[in-house]
């Protein structure tokens, strides 16, 4: 079956998306640098619009997408598509949750190791000709308690990787946790307060919702161990950054690593002045494998929707 629909790819995405769509007869236009003004002029000509992170499909743009059947995000979060506006116009909105699972989970392991052994500081000091071996007494992840908040795709993958490093996994989710998975990783189920009080590392894997805004606030931070470390690779806004700054500065929290921020790009963020804080610029899904997998998933979903299979 071949299709005649026109596809506009608005951001840089793995070439496999283009290849699969073209093989299926779709006319693909690749404009990874398209401006919002240009997009507003062209969007009405396309049945399928694909974005990654750069382009935001605002209400105004969605309304101009008069022929559109599918809006696709080559990634997980749908923060850059006005899904309500799309729904009102009967446009299917799709994403690729599977793509980032392993990439984000591996980044969390990397951030935990970086904090446990102070790798960023070790590297920085050596570049300044300082051999600070004696100051770099680290700790090991094995045997430590990792509290995972949100056991969806990424949280579950992280649990499996951390288990392989002999960490103990404590988990909290607002929906029931698959018992088979829980058994596999020896999951200790807990409520959020117990998890925060018991964990050596806490990693967040929840969406940003009204109910998760500032989920980790001053009050909750104050219940954590003074040596505990927190990792957020989910969405900025789930951790109250002012409260985190105070907890880290006062020594009431051992450390923190953020990949996501309330305001991005997080240039000039005061957290980066703290020695017990490390940061990455929202690179959770930024691996070749994740991008290629996400592009594959989106291509397959588009074809299946056009075939009427899903
Ligand atoms: P998912 O939907 O599979 O899992 C999210 C889980 O959080 C669900 O099980 C849900 O029940 C749970 N949850 C919701 N509210 C909760 C609450 N108040 N307390 C505890 N659990 C709660 O999502 P995912 O694919 O695992 O992604 C998790 C997060 O990671 C999302 O915010 C996503 O946007 C983000 N993400 C970040 C990057 C990055 O580059 N850093 C990449 C991909 C995804």
UniProtKB/TrEMBL annotation:
Gene3D superfamilies in the cross-refs: NAD(P)-binding Rossmann-like Domain
Domain spans labelled D-isomer specific 2-hydroxyacid dehydrogenase catalytic: 7-308
Coiled coil: none
SUPFAM superfamilies, sorted: Formate/glycerate dehydrogenase catalytic domain-like (SSF52283), NAD(P)-binding Rossmann-fold domains (SSF51735)
GO molecular function: NAD binding; oxidoreductase activity, acting on the CH-OH group of donors, NAD or NADP as acceptor
Domain of life where this protein originates: Archaea
Keyword terms: Amino-acid biosynthesis, NAD, Oxidoreductase
Signal peptide as annotated in the record: none
Domain D-isomer specific 2-hydroxyacid dehydrogenase NAD-binding: 109-284
A Pfam family of this chain: 2-Hacid_dh_C
GO process annotations (BP): amino acid biosynthetic process
Family: Belongs to the D-isomer specific 2-hydroxyacid dehydrogenase family.
The protein's name: 3-phosphoglycerate dehydrogenase
Naturally occurring in which organism (per UniProt): Candidatus Nitrosotenuis cloacae
